[in-house]
Task: inverse folding
């Protein structure tokens, strides 16, 4: 009889029996670089757009490249390290990784809510939220398209 934990794993498609080959390391490296550069570019553009739309946010500390770049790079590297793990534990890695990306993004919005609650300008925090969403979109798409899983060969071997 399956336990609740087994049912939870099944619900999230964690079955430890992938029916695909893993992403190639070279592809994963390229996807990671693209995710980092793309995320930093998205952050930069959104910070500039935020200042253009909301001039009162000019000089906002979290819109400084040095401020957001460190956290962006760390977050993207963690996500990129997670992709090969997800491809190993699930026969539906894109399905699972997509849901994990949403869950992690929602958790990463909590500090935005906190700083807003502490009195940071709402317009600036609004832009920070979009920066988090952009990073998630860039990273997810970089990984699944540039470091995809491959079907097994017709004989079923890796």
Result:
């Amino acid at each position: 009889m399956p336990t609740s934990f087994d049912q939870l794993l099944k619900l999230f498609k964690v079955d430890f029996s992938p029916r695909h080959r893993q992403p190639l390391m070279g592809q994963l490296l390229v996807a990671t670089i693209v995710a980092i550069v793309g995320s930093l570019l998205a952050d930069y553009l959104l910070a500039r757009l935020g200042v253009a739309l909301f001039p009162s946010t000019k000089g906002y500390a979290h819109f400084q490249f040095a401020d957001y770049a460190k956290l962006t790079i760390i977050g993207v590297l963690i996500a990129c390290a997670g992709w090969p793990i997800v491809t190993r534990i699930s026969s539906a890695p894109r399905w699972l990784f997509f849901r994990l990306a949403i869950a992690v993004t929602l958790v990463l919005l909590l500090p935005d809510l906190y700083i807003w609650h502490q009195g940071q300008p709402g317009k600036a925090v609004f832009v920070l939220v979009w920066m988090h969403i952009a990073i998630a979109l860039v990273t997810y798409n970089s990984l699944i398209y540039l470091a995809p899983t491959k079907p097994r060969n017709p004989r079923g071997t890796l």
